[in-house]
């Protein structure tokens, strides 16, 4: 009976909600959000399952500590699994964030030093997961810390066929052409993406980036369709030669054929870039890399 009691206590402790107060030395929680907020890249009204978003905590003044969690909404009082609420990933080149060793699916600071913003990646949960809520605690000093109130709590629900509103494509009304520059930045390491990360670091790379600015009826690939042989070669081997030939054969729908050098070890987490032009009829962009 004693063993069963200890087992139940252990399970109960693992399911308890992670405490997010800064400790007994701090004053009581300051009401409101203090101007701090949780932001999600693109400011989506709803999330797309399995998509990756950049989640950040920002505010009007520096803060020293923080805790960022994600929970199911409505919450049943226990910590939810990544399958239900998604999972956080850290940026490999950001030394200010770490996973909280005492809490599940929780990110905290590595050092108690002033910071103006922190960012992590959040992979949205699987289809049919419903709504989740992102909550944050921000610690400014022993007398000012905020948690959960206002914009430090953000609920976001899944985008489904039932919730997606049909939108008619907007016609571009630009009077002239414009020139843009895109930057492809590698964010791949055994810290940000530990699953199946190559044992041999020299194998890590991103292939050359290829694509183009194009008209609305031009496609490089379409969901549900069979990939072209050129796209298959790029996806399987990282070879862009056949894809370049395919794009040149369809050049009537292109404004700019875009190519940028790949990122190879030891520079996988650097960046590569290229410029392209758009005009009124060819203002969409498609890029591919392996």
Automatic annotation (TrEMBL):
Keyword Repeat annotated: yes
Q: Where is the Reelin domain?
A: 3-169
| GO cellular component assignments | extracellular matrix
The protein's UniProt keywords, in alphabetical order, are: Repeat, Signal
Query: Which residue ranges does UniProt annotate as crossing the membrane?
Result: none
Q: Which residues form the Spondin domain?
A: 168-290
Cite the Gene3D superfamilies for this sequence.
F-spondin domain, Reeler domain
- InterPro entries of this UniProt entry? Reeler_dom, Reeler_sf, Spondin/Thrombospondin_T1, Spondin_N, Spondin_N_sf
Determine the domain of life of the protein's source: Eukaryota
Q: Name one GO biological process term.
A: cell adhesion
- Position of the signal peptide: 1-16
Q: What name does UniProt use for this protein?
A: Spondin domain-containing protein
Q: Which organism is it from?
A: Cuerna arida
